[in-house]
Amino acid sequence: MTDDVRLDLSRHRRLGIAEAILAEPKSTAQLTTALEHATVNDRSMLLTRLSPDQLASLPDATRGLIEYDELSRTGFFGPVVAPTGSPRVAVITAGTSDRAVASEAERTLAFAGHHCLSMSDIGVAGLWRLTERLDELSPMAVVVVVAGMDGALPTVVAGLVPGVIIAVPTSVGYGVARDGETALRSSLASCAPGLVVVNIDNGYGAACAAMRVLNSGSSAGSSATMSASDERGRLG
Amino acid sequence: MTDDVRLDLSRHRRLGIAEAILAEPKSTAQLTTALEHATVNDRSMLLTRLSPDQLASLPDATRGLIEYDELSRTGFFGPVVAPTGSPRVAVITAGTSDRAVASEAERTLAFAGHHCLSMSDIGVAGLWRLTERLDELSPMAVVVVVAGMDGALPTVVAGLVPGVIIAVPTSVGYGVARDGETALRSSLASCAPGLVVVNIDNGYGAACAAMRVLNSGSSAGSSATMSASDERGRLG
Amino acid sequence: MTDDVRLDLSRHRRLGIAEAILAEPKSTAQLTTALEHATVNDRSMLLTRLSPDQLASLPDATRGLIEYDELSRTGFFGPVVAPTGSPRVAVITAGTSDRAVASEAERTLAFAGHHCLSMSDIGVAGLWRLTERLDELSPMAVVVVVAGMDGALPTVVAGLVPGVIIAVPTSVGYGVARDGETALRSSLASCAPGLVVVNIDNGYGAACAAMRVLNSGSSAGSSATMSASDERGRLG
Amino acid sequence: MTDDVRLDLSRHRRLGIAEAILAEPKSTAQLTTALEHATVNDRSMLLTRLSPDQLASLPDATRGLIEYDELSRTGFFGPVVAPTGSPRVAVITAGTSDRAVASEAERTLAFAGHHCLSMSDIGVAGLWRLTERLDELSPMAVVVVVAGMDGALPTVVAGLVPGVIIAVPTSVGYGVARDGETALRSSLASCAPGLVVVNIDNGYGAACAAMRVLNSGSSAGSSATMSASDERGRLG
Amino acid sequence: MTDDVRLDLSRHRRLGIAEAILAEPKSTAQLTTALEHATVNDRSMLLTRLSPDQLASLPDATRGLIEYDELSRTGFFGPVVAPTGSPRVAVITAGTSDRAVASEAERTLAFAGHHCLSMSDIGVAGLWRLTERLDELSPMAVVVVVAGMDGALPTVVAGLVPGVIIAVPTSVGYGVARDGETALRSSLASCAPGLVVVNIDNGYGAACAAMRVLNSGSSAGSSATMSASDERGRLG
Amino acid sequence: MTDDVRLDLSRHRRLGIAEAILAEPKSTAQLTTALEHATVNDRSMLLTRLSPDQLASLPDATRGLIEYDELSRTGFFGPVVAPTGSPRVAVITAGTSDRAVASEAERTLAFAGHHCLSMSDIGVAGLWRLTERLDELSPMAVVVVVAGMDGALPTVVAGLVPGVIIAVPTSVGYGVARDGETALRSSLASCAPGLVVVNIDNGYGAACAAMRVLNSGSSAGSSATMSASDERGRLG
Amino acid sequence: MTDDVRLDLSRHRRLGIAEAILAEPKSTAQLTTALEHATVNDRSMLLTRLSPDQLASLPDATRGLIEYDELSRTGFFGPVVAPTGSPRVAVITAGTSDRAVASEAERTLAFAGHHCLSMSDIGVAGLWRLTERLDELSPMAVVVVVAGMDGALPTVVAGLVPGVIIAVPTSVGYGVARDGETALRSSLASCAPGLVVVNIDNGYGAACAAMRVLNSGSSAGSSATMSASDERGRLG
Amino acid sequence: MTDDVRLDLSRHRRLGIAEAILAEPKSTAQLTTALEHATVNDRSMLLTRLSPDQLASLPDATRGLIEYDELSRTGFFGPVVAPTGSPRVAVITAGTSDRAVASEAERTLAFAGHHCLSMSDIGVAGLWRLTERLDELSPMAVVVVVAGMDGALPTVVAGLVPGVIIAVPTSVGYGVARDGETALRSSLASCAPGLVVVNIDNGYGAACAAMRVLNSGSSAGSSATMSASDERGRLG
Hints:
The structure is a homooctamer.
Chain A: H1 11-15, E1 20-22, H2 28-40, E2 45-48, H3 52-57, H4 60-64, E3 66-69, E4 74-77, E5 89-93, H5 99-111, E6 117-119, H6 128-131, H7 134-137, E7 142-147, H8 153-158, E8 164-169, H9 181-188, E9 196-197, H10 203-219, H11 228-235
Parallel strand pairs in A: 1-2, 5-6, 5-7, 7-8, 8-9
Antiparallel strand pairs in A: 2-4, 3-4
């Protein structure tokens, strides 16, 4: 079974973002193998969409090395990067129910050493909840906007805040919300300029995109960037 | 061909709303027949989705009796009801491109003798355009909100204005806007309480719904309402 | 966790409709926090889509303050508005199985002090069940029509009754009923004039829309309406 | 190019229904070839979905043998079966715009020698138009109900009339009507018992189904039915 | 709760088909009430989509009056009509897994006193299984063809057998079979003439349609048919 | 504009299949540039989905070098491979209208020097048209089955013929045929074992797949196959 | 119940592929009957999509004859064909989570006596994992590529490897992955020439298609192929 | 008509991005009005999705002020920002046919004074075309990847290049490509970390997002950013 897993250990060198393990569709055996590979290669590892039941099924020794957060269903295997500086990323939600996805984004950022500013339950049905906090959002390099149902919040934010706005549609809602499909399409069809979108419930992906922005902004990908020639050689 | 058309002449008596003719899918012969029926029964008639080509194809005498508006593609056949009182319905659009659908609603109201307040191009990408006019919208019994693309405006309005808010999604947009489907679903999944929705591009239907509100508010459907016992007899 | 919840306490002042708590996607901790906020602010609160399991998971003291109805899955937290006058809203269903959604609408109205007229199982497969009760429906300001499967009842009612007709599609049915999508689309494409529609299974939303109609009808939004200038200031 | 066409000449013997030519997707050359085959085999032929442009493109001699009807876009090539007896099939439409599809059904029946009863524009928005004609519909063996938009009429008819009810959804409508998809799904999800459905705009198919009913009813498929043993031999 | 249920007791008189109870979406209380109504009115009743758990939840006395079949999930409450004559309807399946839906059709027919011919597992992947039994199928007035996955069998049968062919798509399959949607659409788009279709998994509806055919064939709806004038009076 | 085009000249060496030009979405300038590249590199080129209008818009000199076939909308630019041996691939269609797509497959094969066996109009509504030709189909290494509407033919063929069966759904049909989507899904959900599928109307792709089969069969990809090590070097 | 099952015992003779039992939608009784038929006819049998619960529900004697593999959910009932020669088929996956579907393909091949080359977790997010193994893939007659989520791997492989490339989309992923629909459509729309596709999660079908390729390559279907004339006779 | 247009003149101050005019759904009168507003306010204006016919319909004086590019369908009304520095954004396409959308992105960047690096026709079917240019892509702050059909290129790039990767799905393709829907969903479901996506064919939006990245990177939104307090006041 060991052969089922092949970690992409050069990902951080290539992209400035380490590989993470999407736990949900994996068996206990597959998860265990992946973490053994990480141990052997002396890597810390982020686990996403890890259910409490999956966590409980892992061998005691392995489970003991995982710092788990139930709301976000994420686990930190091994030490994380120490955070530095003040937050340049905000993670905000339309409703309380969107917190789980937002916290996946926050945990992904934390694992890589990034602080973030967090705000909840500021959906457009009560617009004052957003406008009273615009002063905090406007200086941010990135605002991750997590919203289900109608998905109107990302558009409103993208019309008011100049940073990179990343919409994360969530599967919160019922009926025509269709597991996030409506929020997704609403953000993609936004009338606000330059709003970008990731998959439904993909807090992890939004955080990775935020890190790409942060990496690109500082010094044009120098430290995080692989030497392309190098990698090209490796591809061959 | 005459037998193809049967006007619902008792509709106004039953519902307080006269029948209108959806012209788009009809042949010239069918339109002509319908207008002959109206003439014989001494009725004025609203035509919707009437293309300039269809208009041109009608016999001269018939065409001369139609007051046509190209933007809304509506025609008034015969005299209209004289307007009275100050507007209790507003019709507003997210973008300039939504004007055609909005004007179908406005013309439907005008045909029945209702003034309305009209505002354009106040979409949420520039939120100030909406908020600076809230004073005008708040006293309205009904606000018809016409919006394509993301369909975020109806939700924002429904969170700020207490009247009956009717969303009319439009087919304006491209890609995932999918001919209005996204705007429709976004409004249906709205987080704002009590937003109601009609079919895509259905300015006519929104105006009819507004008239039902106006009728119900004045004196509980008394004048516009048929005697149900009466009608029940007729059904038999 | 307290920061996850921010009640929109000015909603009733703005819209004439108080905020409610959509319980379904919320954790016990989030529900508890929300109800604490309500207590602190001395508000009653309507809870919707609250499962028996969620109810059972709440602290005893909190649970004791909730008047729960299992069919509608709604809870009243705190005292409700005393009803006055005779019903101006009817809530009717096509089939017995649509009762759960209908009762969500009825409970939402009851929480705000509105009586309603209730009728069940009068779908169009046996049309006499509807026609024999038209006398009761025709004077209503609003008729909420709850129907799954083919969704034909709202169209038939909207052709016979002059009030505001609000279709609530339900997820009752199987196969092509597709969790209410067919009933939804059928009502939106209705050939009857002025039928309006809310989200699938959204009895709460239909009731809110009905209250907007009642509020708009009496005295043009005066008491329920915020001063827009006031609110505009607050938005800033 | 002749090899592109292979008529199913034994179809009438097998099924009691002759093959017809779906003209729409065919080139002039392919149509000409098919009609030559018919001539050689001494068969009359029904052409469906034949556009005026296609008709005009045919060789003069061929075109002269076609009795064309523009509304239904059908052509009779060669003599038709003489009608006998009183109508046992009714073809009815919800709106005037559904006439084109209804007339395809009527022409298909006429080509095979069947009279039918035709009614138009009796949709449920004005229910009295249907109920006043129930006496004529109830004795029919088959009622073909042609309806677009919401597709509510077939359900209402199937709740009132005991014959075989065949719904033909049409592409009439706009927005969520989605080219007949909504009418189709509404009829399939019908709460009325035993309603059957054919493809959108498929008047031809509905007529064929009606003929299967008529054939099965008279004397259990005796004259129209092939000897199955016979055919089985042919299949091998 | 009693008021939630209103049986359509005149259905058999109108349509020749008695009302049945779709049990699946109903609560125990609602089922019990419905059966009490039946008892009071001295009617037998067919229950469809009745789960073993629902059956077990009924009061002992009620449950004892139900003859239950687990494969079809149907129950007979009260005596059934005694069967007469030889079968004029066949019910056939493409695969063994389609048996549950087929047996719903067979039980519906049996409840009304109709024998039927039953064949299983004769899908087109092994075409000989169908062709060797054509002699039995060809004399049938109606063939109900139950098939999931690709839904090819109804088309093949409709090309070989002259009776009324009713396709019942089933939700058997996975992936693109999409809970029967593919089988449904394939049958609706059939190249075979006159194939009619009912909702996915709707064995009950197919049986009702078959009974409409049988009723129409014998003596033009005379005994089963209401007097339309009569009923029209009742509608009023 | 020249920089818009970069031919994949090593494709034949890598895959045994030369690059072709999908003309449809390209401008005249882009087509001209591509053919200039081909000339410079001394390559023949297959053009697919090339409309007569596009052909006419090309410079005379270029157009003169193209052997064009209107039915398939394909062009041969430069000399083709001379055919050898007897056909090992059959291309068959359900209906005459599917010929255009079938001929795209045949022309793609011809361009690469492969004969094929061609049969038309043998759809399952008249099953004898298929069964009488099974002797010819059974020895084929590959059978490309082109079918629109219900898409039943590929399944029936895959149950009778042992070769590689490639379904090509076509956009022939109307209503629920939905531009080939139904035929596509029906073939993917097939109950026959090992049926493979390509995109709707993709005769070109089916022919390429057939060539992969032929190449793999002869001598395990030796002549057509690149040296993988070689190519790996090139990737780097 | 025995009559519910009819094995297609001549399938191997016709197609070179034996019938298998899709266990998932079958009851214990139906599975038992099918295996009894196999025993009586002295056939081994492959069971697919057989859950551990289904296995456990079988009679002890039957269960004892099944060699079960939990990851692939397949069972071998009776002896399998002994493998010979070196692998000519590779089965590769984009991610570890795709292993279950891949192993269904591998087990299907193993049951019929085919070795295969297996590779896992070589998705395009870390492209080097694929390119470093191209030397092994290039000589293969068939490469089965199993991938969920974006479904990009089959396209990349089909651009690099000359054999027959069969994409098996999997339901791995969340949100817009929509149970494999996105991976499916991406492979069907591939820009790489000659990629063929099977149903979502259909490892069994991909293996059958691979066997058709292997059979066709060796000696043009001679040994595996029925005599078509023979079979034609049988069809009759 | 003038009242139909209300420019969002403070957008650049708020967001660092000036408003543009989506020309496609606008009438000549509406376009003319919008450009008059721009003239009065002394603004340059970008027009997108402006057809040659629309351009030709404008008054001569207006048309003369527009620098038009046909491939991208964009117009520059008034002077543009002078470009400075070396490119930090790359715009690349999978195929030649994706150039139109790519050039909309390039023109949007050029209008705002940003150079960009442009590459075409480097889709994954010939992977070497991408890998040989990785050295140029890796230092980029943003890579806009324009791709239709399968949409595999953005995923492959996002696995190799560390900058912000913005996928622009295009409507290039046919059949299951479904006007860009498949490319869109494939990019959203990407297995590569941090890929972000905009609407189908939305080159303009991708360029705006790129500008947000560039703005955020330099000095945290200082110059381009409004004072949020300021704007908040204006919202009120």
